[in-house]
Amino acid sequence: MLRISNAVSLADDEIELSAIRAQGAGGQNVNKVSSAIHLRFDICASSLPEFYKERLLALNDSRITREGVIVIKAQQYRTQEQNREDALNRLAELIRSAVKVEKKRRATKPTRSSQRKRLDKKKQRGSIKSMRGKVQP
C-alpha cells in the first residue's frame, strides 16, 4: 500500500514493478544482478480520484506516456530493495506535486516613494558621471 495523502492511497496491485539490469559501470556484478527497478503505473485504470487523474494527465512530464502510463526507472542504488523504495517514493512525489495548488500571483506596483528614490539615485549617478568630463579653463 503506497500512501499519497491522508485520504488517498494506492494498492500494491495497481503498481507494476519489474527488476531489470542497471546501466553503466559496475564491473562483473552489473551483468549478473537485476538491481534496477522499472515501475509502471496506469493513471486511467487506477483508483485515484478524478481530480488527481486529470491533474496528472495534464502534466507535461517525460515520465508520462501518451497512453497515460507513468514510467519510472530507478537504478541509483546497488540493491533492488533500495531501488524499489526509491521508485515508489518518486511516484508518490510526482502525484503529490501534480495535485499541489499554487497560490495565484497578484500583480503589484512599486510604491511612489520607491519610484522617487530610484529616479533620484539615477539623477545623482548621472551628475557624478557628468563631472568626469574634461575641465574647461
TrEMBL record:
Domain of life from the UniProt record: Bacteria
Stretch list, region Disordered: 102-137
Positions of the Prokaryotic-type class I peptide chain release factors domain: 21-37
InterPro entries per UniProt: Pep_chain_release_fac_I, Pep_chain_release_fac_I_sf
Biased composition (Basic residues): 102-126
Annotated PROSITE patterns: RF_PROK_I
Pfam families the UniProt entry points to: RF-1
Family listed: Belongs to the prokaryotic/mitochondrial release factor family.
Listed name of the protein: Ribosome-associated protein
UniProt source species: Marinobacterium sediminicola
